Fold these 2 entries.
Entry 1:
Amino acid sequence: MELEKHLIDLSNAPGMSGYEAPVREMIRAAWESLAEQFDIDGLGSLSALRHGVGDKPRRCVMVTAHMDEIGLMVTSIDGAFLRVTRVGGIDRRVLLGQPVIVHGKRLLSGIIGSRPPHILSVSEKKRYPGYDDLVVDTGLTERELKQIVPVGTVVTFDQQAVPMGNGLLGGKALDNRASIAALTLMLEHLQGRRHDWDIAAVATTQEEVGTRGGTVAAWHTRPDLAIVIDTTWGTGVGVSEDKGFPIGEGLTLVIGPNAHPKLFDLLRKKAAQLEIPITPEPAAGSSGTDGWAIQVSRQGVPTAIIGIPIRNMHTPVEVVALKDIERAARLISEFVCGLDDESLDRLALAAGP
Ligand SMILES: [Zn+2]
């Protein structure tokens, strides 16, 4: 698999929260020859299982990344225009001028428009347009829209991914397709490797609307241990190192109540052995990832959360470094191959964190 090409395909594919089928099919095709057993649960998360060689009952580690992306939904038809609302936490500063795809009875190309600046009042000029100020313009008439675009139609960003300098890639949905690409690479690294534990790679749904796919997937997979990969804030203009992490310079590892302290230590040690730079990412409460849901599944799951820094989070022009994706895949594949009979005992919290 050529990582840049794979990530471009993943980024371009539509898969809004609750409507992940198009991207799920692409992931399934990419994983088809890399795992032994596939399963899609009731909320649409895709699980790919590789059997371990350890004694039964065999332990299972679940490695997850959410595949859904933020997007828009049609709320009404207003003359020849569509009114929309958001699904997930879109940065609405960038909505005006965006090309979109309207997933009606047939696919329509559209543009997000608003009133020209010349006729805005002074107070309107000082604020970013809200959803009431924006419309999707498809060029169709009201009559045509009423036939083709029912209320509730999904609208996704029509932004083709852009290869950039120094192994960076810009595009939509890199939160969290970057981590899906890391899962694909991890599965590739595991080919021909022996591992005691079962390894379930899971592409979850509906993370952006409340870690819902992860909740169900954890219950369904019954993991003994979980590793979640998601994106985190990259440094850039106005985002200093106390608020973000440099992209292309390594991964983050969440530390705090959402992360198992001993699992954190073990992963950090493994990263040091592999010379993969890791920065602890403090999360005083929820990490804001599927890890929050998975950790409290069933009797509790020791969980680690790995972050891949990206710039421009929750816009259609997120930026990621391919190198960081490779690092995440290498770290996790080496770690899961090292899990053995005693691994869970080493994580026992009885002695205190
Ligand atoms: Zn995410």
Note: The domain at 71-157 is CATH 2.40.30.40 (Elongation Factor Tu (Ef-tu); domain 3).
Entry 2:
Amino acid sequence: MAVYAIGDIQGCYAELMNLLELIHFDPANDQVWFTGDLVNRGPASLQVLRAVRALGDSAITVLGNHDLHLLAVAEGHAPLHKGDTLDAILTAPDRDELLAWLRQQPLMHHDPALHTTLVHAGLPPQWDLAMAQACAKEVETVLRSDDYARFFQHMYGNQPEVWRDDLAGWDRLRFITNSFTRLRYCDATGHFDFKAKGEPGTQPEGYLPWFEIPGRRNENLRIVFGHWSTLGLRRERNIVSLDTGCLWGKQLTAVRLNRNATVFCVECSQHRHPGSGTSTMETTAR
Ligand SMILES: [Mn+2]
């Protein structure tokens, strides 16, 4: 059995199909993890949602900020933003089934055999594995409850910006959600900065990528994540970042998680030259 992780798709359905073909993905034998943000901004979010759901147990996906935004918009708790491409889902005949399925997806997945953890964005430095799992479960429990719609009324916002064990109520759930789905930079004491979105080196003084915070309590885990297209593909110190900006005309990337760390990339089809191959492959043993 091969286990792969694929970065943020954001509605790039053609590239997803090309990548699954490139890795010879076999749903009967293989498993694929998705870093979340299946939808939005790209051209074919509805098709992506249907395709990933149809993979059934062979696919594991964690929720990203765009996935949560879709659910909030569908519940009437957020307006569509400029650049959103969610209309086809919202008006689809199978909309309710697709959204109900999406709402059941986790914020985090951990595979003990692979010593590997999947999140959309990151983890605060104060959380070890057990804490991260417990926090993910708090939000997942609300999302899976009958009362889930109220969550979206309180989800948006950048506060609180630092973890405290005694955070409670919506502030606690918002912080947890922001950690898993929006985090890029924080300072050594774990205060988040959501304004900085560029590549490392462009952030305000005193802030670091979350995975470079000295002594973070989750540094023993191999963490696979997406969300950060300006970071691109990085494999270092037990982190694998996979958002390679397919949406922005770059690539959609898969990495094999077991046996070796082979990397597979397909080019964004918008930049494909007629008559040339649609795929490129790089192999790098780790
Ligand atoms: Mn994201």
Note: The chain is about 30% helix and 20% strand.
